[in-house]
Amino acid sequence: MKYLEDVQKILDSIPKGKVMTYQQIAIMLGNKKLARVVGNALHKNPLPLVHPCYKVVNSKGQLAKNFGYGGIEKQKEMLENDGIEVINYQVDLEKYKWKI
User: Does 77 participate in catalysis according to the annotation?
Assistant: First the structure.
């Protein structure tokens, strides 16, 4: 996939206790309209424990309903293990969004 390596590098740069949105990553790739491409790359991430795709949420801070590596409950668990509070499957972007 064309953007997979670039997306993986961005994922690797997200600090502990922070999240990014699909659109933030798309902007870092050079086009804010690539958010769906980012989602596709995350879903095809062959090493989710190495490249932490669980740290990506939508623009409202909502978790992925179809998180590809164990479902939404697994994403919630992984975020909480990273020190991120998740309420109703949503994170507070004001508090946890990595502002790069």
Answer: no
